[in-house]
Amino acid sequence: MGQSLEKKCIATNLPYSMLRQGDLSMEDVRPLKRLEKELERVRKKLHQSVRGEPSRLLDPTVLPISRELDLLIVQYQYLKHNI
């Protein structure tokens, strides 16, 4: 019952108040490292899907991967600039 209902950042799972205060420890940087690994995984997946052929950018299977990468980039930038 004593759980906090404070909203948390989707990228870090940390309370927004903590992000605004800049009171993050080195331990809190772990989400940034996880995002970096995930970004690299999805980037490779996108690169493999396109296979160096610009015409494949229009392939319907590429768009969801591109959107996933976009979301990860936004999360990464948000987290990086709020630590």
Task: Note down, in words, how this protein is organized.
The chain is mainly alpha-helical and 83 residues long. It has one domain (16-81). Helices cover 57% and strands 0% of the residues. It has 3 helices and no strands. Helix 2 runs antiparallel to helix 3. The longest helix is centred in the middle third of the chain and has 21 residues, at 30-50.
Rg from C-alpha positions? 16 Å
Q: Which structural class do the helices and strands define?
A: mainly alpha
Number of domains: 1
Strand count, sense and barrel status of the largest sheet are: none
What would the average pLDDT be, to the nearest integer?
79
Number of helices: 3
Overall shape: it is: elongated
Identify low-pLDDT runs: none
Number of extended strands = 0
Beta-strand portion reads: under 5%
Q: Topology as H/E string?
A: HHH
Distance between the termini: 30 Å
Helix content: 55-70%
What's the arrangement of secondary structure elements?
Layout: H1 16-21, H2 30-50, H3 62-81
In short:
This protein is an all-alpha fold and about 80 residues long. The chain has three helices and no strands.
Keywords:
83 residues, mainly alpha, elongated, single chain, 0% strand
